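Structure representation:
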Amino acid sequence: MSLTPTSNKHKIQIQAGKDGRDRGHKFEESVAKAINDFGEYTDLRRINIESIIYQGNPGIILLEYLLSTLGIPNDTIDRIQAFWLGGLATSNTGDTLLDQNGSKIKASKSDIVIKIYFKNSPSRMFGSSVKACNQTTPTNDQLFFTTASAFCELLRRNGLVVSKEAEEGLKMFCGDKGYRPIDGNIPSERKSDPERWFWEELPTASRSELEKLITRKQDEITDILLRKAY
């Protein structure tokens, strides 16, 4: 459920956040669909996992990267199934996947879960976070936001200043244990996902610092992420 706006500016921010999440969810869904629609596993190529930039169909590249990293031979694969789970917590949309107890998963930090069925061995599952940015000058650094502390330390090691308050704001946004709504007192009027705070809900000082950092230091951050994050 959307947040209740406190001003017209806040209302626009909420809508912008929703629109951005919806676009991101569509991309996540398309990546899962590409994997599910690809049936000729013998055609999957091995790619250079040391590279930082790939071109082509994102779903197939993700699959090829996974198989290359793990050293899984094509001829051992029976079938592969991808589950899109990125929209479960924020928009109640996504694929059905059961947990170990047979219950339907209702939220997941992995936007896509890939299940590989082997011909002569048990199946294996892998989770992946998927991020997209449609701007010609990207401002989305979420490819590393899923580990807030690691992201902040990476920037600090490379000469960028990130305060403790900004790091705590990222932990709230990422849903780190101890920084989630469910870990403290949730306002009675709040009906959104209890596992994480939305960007619009972060403390003003933390959000302002992060927005300035991402806007003013985007080139440096992108360079750091692409060359040193993995």
